[in-house]
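[audit] Reproducing an earlier prediction to check determinism. Same input, same settings, fresh worker. If the tokens differ from the archived copy the diff job will pick it up downstream; this log only records the rerun itself.
[audit] input (162 residues):
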Amino acid sequence: MVFKPHSITIKNWKLSLFLILIIHCQHSLCAQTITAPVLSYHNSDVLLKSIFKNYEIISLDIDQIKSALNQRTVHQKLDIQLGSKHWNLDLFEYDLIKADYQLRIGTDEGIITKPKSGNIKTYRISNQNAAGEMGSLTISDHFFYGFVIDGNERYFLNPYLE
């Protein structure tokens, strides 16, 4: 047997590089943590109680979520506490709006055509407790809309305007 110290050093170096890459990949998939507290109830309770059996009004920092999801990757994780619900979500970005989409606005001066906005992001949401079903999320400037499936329950996330 011939001892080749050079080949052992290269193998150790490759193993070290491999471990560094694994640690880096795990770090990039670490969940961003978002917490949204429940707001104290107010005049809207009467209307909401007439429509829903259970509901919570929460204060959500949409800019914090947008910055957490600012990376352009296919898969992201989000650890989110919305009121009394806590979810570890896997988000998969997909473009809901076609690349050639144009917004057409009718004005007194005629129709104005604008290209697709790049600040609207859409995601499919996978939750460990969703039994294989996917939720959905759309996020933009000051806008957050979607639903999360948790067990047999579907939680709708809608903006509330007073």
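[audit] rerun output stored. Observation attached for the diff report: The two ends are 81 Å apart (CA to CA).
[audit] end
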